[in-house]
Automatic annotation (TrEMBL):
GO terms for cellular component: plasma membrane. The chain crosses the membrane at residues 32-53, 88-107, 114-141, 147-166, 186-208, 281-303, 429-451, 463-494. The keyword Amino-acid biosynthesis does not apply. It holds the Pfam family Choline_transpo. This is Choline transporter-like protein. GO terms for molecular function: transmembrane transporter activity. Choline transporter. Belongs to the CTL (choline transporter-like) family. PANTHER family: CHOLINE TRANSPORTER-LIKE (SLC FAMILY 44), CHOLINE TRANSPORTER-LIKE 2. The keyword Membrane applies. It is a multi-pass membrane protein. It comes from Nasonia vitripennis (Parasitic wasp). InterPro entries: Choline_transptr-like.
């Protein structure tokens, strides 16, 4: 009995919930059919990659027949060669950008209000400018205005005003406290930073591997023979051969059965010629490679997200934070691999994405938006990503399947729509501020160093842009880490509030300041 109690106690520390039903219920085992399908696709993906690298022609990957592309490739190759000479310098600046990103999280831990109020001031300033400028432009143009631009400006004013009203309703103190709690969770697990970077590198490697397979498959061609008829020798073949101009042929049969008009000699100009063409099965390989390449990258991303969200949920639900062991991340990884690999495969599968798109299309009757396919693609992808994000987090916490987890997450967000909306907008602002923070410090230091090494403007600006791009790519995983932490903490808070409403036990796991702000006594 004691052993069982101890085991249940450990489970609560890992993904504890104050809800007794969720606490005592066993985790749903992984979605086996989706995992099997994913494994089959993975085997095909590996086999296609081996086939492409063994049979593709590396000398043709650069598409030398395209002069414009060749010039661009020469420029890129020269840039890469020069960057290779300064690889340690570039690595140092990129590492510096990564450290600045971590420093940004430390600053957020203590003074998030500075960034929140700065965002509010910017929003108010932009809103004021639009309110003043629209009537001025309207009067200055004397009625010769663009109606669509006027409507867009009014819509922007209305939406920004609504956003500021929601911000007032939620309260900046709540937002700042959620940010603080999220940053505490990150800093309590320093390995989460390295884990986020590692997962990001795996994603980049998967993308590059998929593109490499695509490039090598493009170079694979087979020898075919087709009929090339010329009117100059009036060559005729037996009708049953059906050797029309351009049809496939056999060279020996053509020489034997195809004669000039009159049947004497052999065709001199018309012939069965050889040519190179892409085999039809290569197109099938392209489809498998691109679909599974996207699927694999998505699975890697959400595996990292589930691992991180499980870790941050552990931080939230554990009352005594000091009792959290350093093996929490590794235990979460084992739990995810045991119970949730199939959930990952199912939740990120192409048919689930299509079903979500179909559901949204059918529910909201958005057929008129088909005239703007790119707009709808962005909307669908945004809806899928948000649903998948929240579903993965709840699946990690409660151990449910993907569909059930999305329903639970949606229910929590419906209970707290204003808080959910404004926290997502806050994440966007924090991402912008992090980018500005890192670039504003890295840019002048990088420029000063490069300028001291060379006086050639082209060389300076080329390397400056290259280093800044590398630095921005490197801070991206930290942005994702911060976003996952905030989303996890806010969903845990929603879950905590719901548990308190549904049970007589008036106990919260949120910190005392959040409890004072959110709980009605």
């Amino acid at each position: 009995m004691n052993a069982t109690s101890e085991k249940n106690s450990k489970a609560i520390v890992e993904y504890g919930s104050t809800n007794n039903i969720s606490r005592d219920k066993k985790r749903t085992f992984t979605d086996i059919p989706s995992l099997i399908i994913f494994s089959i696709f993975f085997i095909f993906y590996i086999a296609i990659g081996i086939f492409a690298f063994c049979n593709g022609d590396a000398t043709k990957v650069q598409w030398e027949a395209n002069p414009e592309f060749e010039r661009k490739m020469d420029f890129i190759n020269n840039l890469l060669e020069n960057m290779n000479d300064l690889r340690y310098v570039i690595l140092s600046f990129v590492s510096f950008a990564l450290l600045l990103s971590v420093l940004y999280i430390v600053i957020l831990r203590w003074i998030p209000g500075f960034f929140v109020y700065t965002a509010i001031i910017i929003e108010c300033a932009v809103l004021t400018i639009f309110i003043i400028s629209i009537p001025i432009f309207f009067l200055a143009l004397e009625g010769q205005y663009n109606l669509s631009k006027l409507v867009s400006g009014i819509v922007f004013i209305v939406l920004t005003s609504i956003k500021l009203y929601i911000l007032k309703q939620v309260g900046t103190t709540v937002i700042c406290e959620v940010i603080k709690e999220s940053c505490r969770a990150i800093l309590n697990f320093p390995s989460s930073i390295l884990l986020s970077v590692f997962v990001y590198i795996l994603e980049i490697f998967s993308v590059l591997n998929t593109l490499s397979i695509f490039s090598y498959l493009m170079t694979i061609q087979s020898n075919y023979k087709k009929v090339s008829m010329s009117s100059m020798d009036s060559c005729q073949c037996l009708p049953e051969l059906m050797y029309d101009d351009g049809s496939e042929c056999d060279e020996d049969v053509f020489k034997t059965m195809c004669k000039p008009v009159g049947g004497i000699g052999s065709c001199m100009i018309s012939s069965c010629i050889a040519y190179l063409a892409t085999p039809s099965y290569i197109y099938f390989f392209h489809v498998i490679n691109l679909i599974f390449g996207l699927w694999l990258v998505t699975v890697i991303f959400y595996f990292g997200q589930m691992l991180l969200s499980g870790t941050f949920a552990t931080w939230y639900w554990t009352t005594n934070k000091k009792s959290i062991g350093f093996t929490t991340v590794s235990r979460n990884a084992v739990t995810i691999m045991k119970y949730h690999l199939g959930t990952l495969a199912h939740g990120t599968s192409p048919w689930v994405i299509v079903s979500i798109i179909h559901s949204v299309y059918s529910t909201f009757k958005m057929s008129k938006f088909w005239r703007a396919p790119w707009t709808m693609l962005v909307c669908w992808w945004t809806i899928f990503c948000k649903a998948a994000d929240n579903g993965m987090i709840l699946s990690t916490i409660h151990g449910e399947k993907m569909s059930r987890s999305i329903q639970m997450a949606t229910d929590l967000c419906y209970r707290n729509p204003l808080r959910f909306y404004i926290m997502n907008k806050t994440i966007e602002w924090l991402a912008i501020f992090m980018t500005l923070f890192v670039v504003s410090i890295t840019l002048p230091i990088t420029f000063g160093y490069i300028a001291s090494q060379s006086n050639e403007p082209t060389w300076i600006y080329t390397f400056l842009i290259a280093i800044i791009i590398c630095a921005l790519l490197m801070i991206f995983p930290i942005l994702i880490l911060l976003s996952i932490s905030i989303n996890t903490i806010i969903l845990c808070i929603f879950d905590d509030l719901k548990n308190n409403e549904e049970t007589k036990e008036k106990r919260h796991h949120m910190n005392h300041k959040l409890e004072d702000l959110l709980v009605v006594k």
